[in-house]
Amino acid sequence: MDYRGTFEDDILDQAKLALPNWSIIYGGIGNDSITINIGGAVGEVGNDTIIGTSPLAFAVYWSSPNGVTVDLVKNIALDGYGTVDKLININNVTGSNYSDTLIGNTLNNSFAAGYGNDLIIGGGGYDVVTYSGIKSTDAEITCDASSDTFKVRKISLDDSIDTLIGIGGITFAGPGSDEITITKDNFGNFRKTITNGSAHSGLIFYGPNATGAKVGDYTVLNNDWGAYDLEINKDYTQSIAYSTSNLQSNVVFSWSYPEYGSKYGVWAYPEILWGAENGWGNLNHSHKVSELVNWSVGYDVTISGNTPRFSVMMEIFVTDRPWGTSNVANITEVAVEVHTQWRDPNTPFTYYSDDYISAATQRIYPNANLGTTTQPGYSVAIQTLEDSLSGTISFSEILASLVEKGIVNGENYISGVSMGSEVGVGIGTLQINRFAIMQTTTGDDTVSIDVGDDALDGGAGLDTAVYNTRYAAHNLAPVTGGFSISGPEGTDTISGFERLQFSDKKIAMDLAPSEHAGQALEFIGVLAPSLVHSPSIVGVILGLIDGGTSLQGVFQLAIDIGLVNDIAASSSDAAVAQMAFRNVIGAEADAGMTDLLVSFMDGRNAHFSHADFLTVIAGMEINQVHIDLIGLQQTGVEFI
């Protein structure tokens, strides 16, 4: 609904005028004040004030006789009439039919572009530029990743060229469009439409041909590659079935594709993505290759039907910038093929099967429309030594080989992993029974243990293995360098994991005298040995040490809050010495022993503070024996 003001200075308010959502209010001539909730405000002639009361309020300049300059940082607009508008709480702008300059702020901004050579500069949020009434195929789009700049040539409008800097996405919407959105992800290269080109890209088009869902770190997606090859009005039903609670198992893709025309038929890549999300944004799981201690995937798939052109593969994506930045320059795409029924002879990959990787092909990734600008990248394809529909693939070994060959740098970043099928023709299904990413790094890791027999090394850092079943359902047994854990998930061998988390209990395994849980028990042994098996007390002390407090610092805290005084019944050197002896030895110190211990605090033998003295006692073997630290190292200790 349109509403028009007068030639006077009007005060117009969408809510007070009871105008429906998506109304357009025109100010007319005069210095108007327009308040808009959900809809657009067209100030027209005059020094107008446009006020937004929701994130869906637009300042609209489509009637301006000249190009406009809108700055959402300064909250002003040169409106094309020679007057200046003041913008309050406006984050969305529709430009004129001339060459405009539109500048975003720190929030999420939406810009509607049209005719003219527009310059649109995004701010600190996720900014989108919309083109109404034209198809993505009617525009020539290029992208310079190094400067984070799109160029959009609007061939079907006036053949003008827009420059978009720092923009997160481009949308073609409305009647006459193809309802396609182009967005950046972490992969660093470019594909022109959702039905043409590489399945993985730096600019992802997602539209009506893609179906899928996202749960946690996993995204499931079913894509057509070659819908341009479909026979008109013929149904090629494609379905996807999955549980919304868990995308790591029992995902079923079905297809029915003919071989048609002069091409290879309709290609599809139904897949599960971990880390990188096709069309849904990014998750911050970035790690450097050099930080990965143990990185593998456990998989199990079932195939059926008649699909002669078919393969099952996983792909790893490695980039040279931290994942999530918009200017990734290089990408290495590593395809690990575990099963094949047919291979396209024109594939850009060269397959190797000895020692995982014998060589790699370097390929130039298109970085602009049809490759007019290029950036280097690698495509590496690997066939596993044995064709298998289930097993565990060690990405750590693969990446180590790539680093050795100079294809991947240890300072490169992991951006994501996918698993799926390349389908060329036929009728069939792929059921992914298991797709479990297991990743540990040199930092702190939390790894969910899935069904299957796994071997994991946590490496450096404070690492936690998470089991989604009860503690009593598992059997823990020490093995060389770690533990064997048998339970409903399978039998796992883990090393370098400091904590185990079950559905009902948490167990600390880092019980060496120099490790966090070991020090927590040493502390308790000196002050309150009867509480060594109290999960809540262990949890409190362990939390302090995990948080960076030293053992000496925890003792000093106990002194500062009066805990040591309460237990020793005095703050004197003698009382502290007698308390420590009593708790560690289990007997009272006589006068001679008390005097000897005090001499380490009064300067005769040493000048220990009380905290220093208690720390030394805690680290003594006699304290470790009396709390049975060696025995607990075989079972772990419960904490809350």
Output the structural class. Answer: mainly beta
Distance separating the two termini: 60 Å
User: Beta-strand percentage?
Assistant: 35-45%
Helix content: 10-25%
- Envelope shape: flat
Main pleated sheet: 13 strands, mixed
Count of alpha and pi helical runs: 10
Mean pLDDT: 77
Can you offer a commentary on this structure?
- A hairpin with a 4-residue loop joins strand 43 (499-501) and strand 44 (506-508).
- The strands form six sheets. Strands 22, 23, 24, 25, 26, 29, 30, 31, 32, 33, 34, 35 and 36 form a 13-stranded mixed β-sheet that branches. The protein has an eleven-stranded mixed β-sheet with strand order 2-4-6-10-9-8-12-14-18-17-16, with no helix packed on it.
- The protein folds into four domains: 2-209, no CATH class; 251-441, Glycoside hydrolase family 11/12, catalytic domain (Jelly Rolls, Sandwich); 461-504, no CATH class; 516-639, no CATH class.
- Mean pLDDT is 77; it is low at 185-213, 224-237, 260-266, 276-285, 323-329 and 343-376.
- The two termini are 60 Å apart.
- The chain is flat and about 100 Å long.
- It contains ten helices and 45 strands.
- It has 640 residues and is mainly β.
Fill in the keyword field for this structure:
38% strand; 13-stranded mixed sheet; 4 domains; mainly beta; single chain; eleven-stranded mixed sheet; 10 helices; 640 residues; Jelly Rolls
Which SSEs are present, and which pair or pack?
Layout: E1 2-4, E2 11-13, E3 23-26, E4 33-36, E5 39-42, E6 49-52, E7 57-60, E8 69-71, E9 76-78, E10 84-88, E11 92-94, E12 101-103, E13 110-113, E14 119-121, E15 128-132, E16 139-144, E17 149-154, E18 160-165, E19 169-173, E20 180-184, E21 203-206, E22 211-215, E23 218-222, E24 239-241, E25 251-257, E26 271-274, E27 276-277, E28 281-282, E29 287-288, E30 292-319, E31 331-340, E32 351-352, E33 361-366, E34 374-383, E35 390-394, H1 395-404, E36 413-441, E37 446-448, E38 455-457, E39 464-466, E40 475-479, E41 482-487, E42 490-495, E43 499-501, E44 506-508, H2 516-527, H3 535-546, H4 551-560, H5 563-568, H6 573-585, H7 591-598, H8 610-618, H9 621-626, H10 629-632, E45 637-639
Parallel strand pairs: 1-3, 2-4, 3-5, 4-6, 5-7, 6-10, 7-11, 8-12, 11-13, 12-14, 13-15, 14-18, 15-19, 31-34, 32-34, 37-39, 38-42, 39-43
Antiparallel strand pairs: 8-9, 9-10, 16-17, 17-18, 19-20, 20-21, 22-23, 23-26, 24-25, 25-36, 26-36, 27-28, 29-36, 30-31, 30-35, 30-36, 33-34, 40-41, 41-42, 43-44, 44-45
Helix pairs in contact: 2-3, 2-8, 4-8, 6-7, 6-8
